[in-house]
Specification:
Elements: E1 13-19, E2 23-30, E3 33-43, H1 47-61, E4 63-70, H2 80-94, E5 99-103, H3 107-115, H4 120-123, H5 128-144
Length: about 150
């Protein structure tokens, strides 16, 4: 059984999120098994609506855990953006989701490299990099066995 009593096919699934100001990139994988797969992005509206959409996604996917990329500064310390992401994660937890964090400092660069093969129009599509970053965040979690 996944979270909320939903049965999942295969192993327990996890969702990866790249939480930004305008969009939330989304990826899904089975716990402990690469690869992760992009599931698009959520265009941000209001905090409660954003949390509801993530919760609906977790229900639909049968996900038992949400992995959130934590944007640390280059010195490894948390700044203002990390505080916003932590606040969003607390709202996810209040909605009944289990949340874990992954350092996302290098995932944007990795995502850009992964998108380099796409035609320019696809590569520059709003949200495409957010989705690729969510995949990188989730794969970092899986590989690290956190």
């Amino acid at each position: 059984m996944g979270v909320f009593g939903f049965a999942s096919i295969g192993g327990v699934k996890v969702i990866g999120l790249d939480v930004g100001e305008a969009r939330i990139g989304v990826a899904v994988a089975e716990e402990g098994k690469p690869p992760a797969f992009g599931r698009g992005w959520i265009v941000r509206s209001d905090p409660a609506g954003d949390v509801a959409r993530v919760r609906e996604l977790a229900e639909r996917e049968g996900a038992g855990r949400v992995i959130v990329g934590l944007p640390l500064r280059t010195d490894g310390e948390e700044g203002a953006q990390a505080a916003k992401v932590r606040a969003f994660a607390r709202a996810l937890e209040a909605a009944g989701l289990e949340v874990r964090f992954v350092d996302e400092r290098f995932t944007t660069r990795l995502a850009a490299r992964r998108l380099a093969h796409l035609p320019r129009k696809k590569r520059q599509e709003k949200g495409r990099r957010d989705e690729a970053s969510a995949v990188a965040i989730l794969e970092t979690y899986i590989e690290g066995g956190l």
